[in-house]
Write a structure and sequence with these properties.
alpha/beta; Rossmann fold; seven-stranded parallel β-sheet; six-stranded parallel β-sheet; 15 helices
Length: about 400
Amino acid sequence: MTQRKLRLAYLVTHPIQYQAPLLRRINAEPDIDLTVFFGTDFSARPFVAADFGQTIEWDVPLLEGYRHELLPAVGAREERDLGFWKPLNYGLANRLAAGQFDALWIHGYARWLHWSAMASAKRRGIKVLLRDEATPISAARSPLKRLAKRGFFYGLSQMVDAFLAIGSLNRRYYVEQGVAGERIFMMPYAVDNARFKADAAKASVSREQLRASLGLEPDRPVLLFAAKLIERKRPLQLVEAFAKVHAEPALRRPYLLFAGDGPLRKQVEEKATELAPGVVKVLGFQRQTELPRCYDLCDAFVLPSGQEAWGLVVNEVMCAGKAVIASDMVGSAPDLVIPGENGAVFRTDDVYDLARAIRHVLKDQDRLAAMGRRSREIIDRWSFEEDVAGLRQALATLCPELIQVRPA
């Protein structure tokens, strides 16, 4: 008798551009029957992004290549309406029963929808897997909050059968909350490496044309920031740090590019004009298909965030083979940035230490190129294949009669 496929349900609030290719990859597994449930579909159509203050429409497919359903809901479904109760979805319990699912994978645990889904799954004997972004550095927590969080996780652990860790800090966070190590499986935060590598290679053909269109002189290094221009990302501090080093002869007078938009744009432009005139350029919001041109053009990337659960843009630029400078509050840094090998890590909110990191990475051109090559080597081992392997390991532990771990 042919063994049936494992029926896996995945619940997430909305379609996410980084997750769509991963869902297609999981759906290609011959022994997994995947169905994705969304609470809202606002991101799959043009929507007003609060941090950008403009209408966004993703130019990559979000709903292709896997089975999906939009859960019915009471109330609005726009990004601005998302909250603990919103959208107020219903009907998942019936869908779980009708689909006879073996496992339910949930992204996040901070909404009513997540908890109702866990309760529905447990009542039906469906195994629950949880993936979330929380880390020891993702939020400020007082001793009282940490104690309360540990109590919260005691209850959460009764509802969850396996935890999927996006990185080493996320895994450490679960352990600190009392989750047993054998219940945690690595499913690292990754991007579509193949696509970003291919797009960067394609962009390299027109690199000099882009450089010329931006008024950048040849043979001068380019430092790139690609994120929202909001306080949490610390773009103003980056301008200050860059201004301290940009005129040093040993650095060959680098440029700084900002690929992004947001409420701090005017302040960034004004501070750049004041402190580093002519060498800082704000490009505005760049679509997913446009970003690889920026990644290919730059020599090093910097993410100075004061708080960053992960920072998938780091993965993306590493696929283009670039050095990375990250603050010690960027969640991906412990896994992806090895100081001295493929970049540098600096103390958050320390402008002088950020300037030191910029100076260290840009000073030696040969070492800078070697750092870029090392980034490619590191990210090659941090991909969707590792995601699928981790998910399969968790499922094989919970449903061994339906799925097995593939040999390494």
